[in-house]
Amino acid sequence: MDKYGMGSIFDLSGKTAIITGATKGIGKEFAFLLARNGVNVALIARHTDLLEEVKEQIEKFDGNAYVLPMDLTETSKIIKAVEEVHEQFGSIDILVNNAGLNIAKPSEELTINDWDKVMDLNLKSTFFMTQAVGKYMKDQKRGKVINISSQMAFVGYFDRAAYSTSKGGLTQLTKALAIEWAEHNININAIAPTFIETDMTRKMFEDRAFKNEVLGRIPLRKLAKEEDLFGALIYLSSRASDMVTGHTVMVDGGWTVW
């Protein structure tokens, strides 16, 4: 193998990945990206019809997808779902913990139910999904876990007390597992994006004052697009990042540099 042949260190063909929150936004785009790069993708989300739509689109370009409709906050179902993926593909090489929720309210208006919903999906389900996948990665003596965090794990912002807390916890979970599982050759990393322009956020940015305020905090003076995260995902999923663990890749246009 030519160590200078850059293509080889980013080659993901034949690998298997689990992607949570795979029917919309970042998760859906990640599914397409990995599938187009030869990865067998197991897609997890709540809605069967949307999962089947993503699967059909992947199969149109000869990708290989498997769907598991489930609510990740029902953590008792996670072990069985992961077992099913392993039986289907024979290995689990990559886990992308993408599913997440933000309930944007002033802190004094957050309810116990709001808080629990955010924590249960963003943090609790991520831990137990990683724990379940870790069993197989340990047996394989290799694995890549990529947690989708946020710049809000590192900075404060309005109406995001629960969300920022969950993402801050996720960043620390990334570090803790990186230390604990290093002996098994498992890399645990995270990607922290800034605000991303998607179909789901477009309405929010119709508020010009809000959009201008956000852009004023980003040195590059633009919102991120889903494809701006592609390089980080391929890097952290591939052999190129074999000596990187416990790290969070900031894709924030410079927001956290201030």
Q: Which topology does CATH recognise?
A: Rossmann fold
**3D shape:** globular
Overall average residue pLDDT:
96
Helix amount: 40-55%
Amino- and carboxy-terminal Cα gap: 42 Å
Whole-number total of structural domains: 1
Reported CATH architecture = 3-Layer(aba) Sandwich
CATH superfamily: NAD(P)-binding Rossmann-like Domain
Name of the CATH first level: Alpha Beta
Q: Structural class of the secondary structure composition?
A: alpha/beta
Rg from alpha-carbon coordinates? 18 Å
Beta strand %: 5-15%
Largest sheet: 7 strands, parallel
Number of strands: 7
- Strand order of the main beta sheet, please? 3-2-1-4-5-6-7
- Flag low-confidence runs: none
The number of helical elements comes to 8
Order of helices and strands: HEHEHEHEHEHEHHE
Descriptors for this entry?
Rossmann fold, 15% strand, globular
How would you describe this structure to a colleague?
- With 258 residues, this protein is α/β, with parallel strands linked by helices.
- It has helices at 6-9, 25-36, 48-60, 78-89, 112-140, 161-181, 208-215, 230-237, and strands at 16-20, 40-45, 65-69, 94-97, 143-148, 186-193, 248-251.
- The protein has a 7-stranded parallel β-sheet with strand order 3-2-1-4-5-6-7, sandwiched between helices.
- The longest helix has 29 residues, at 112-140.
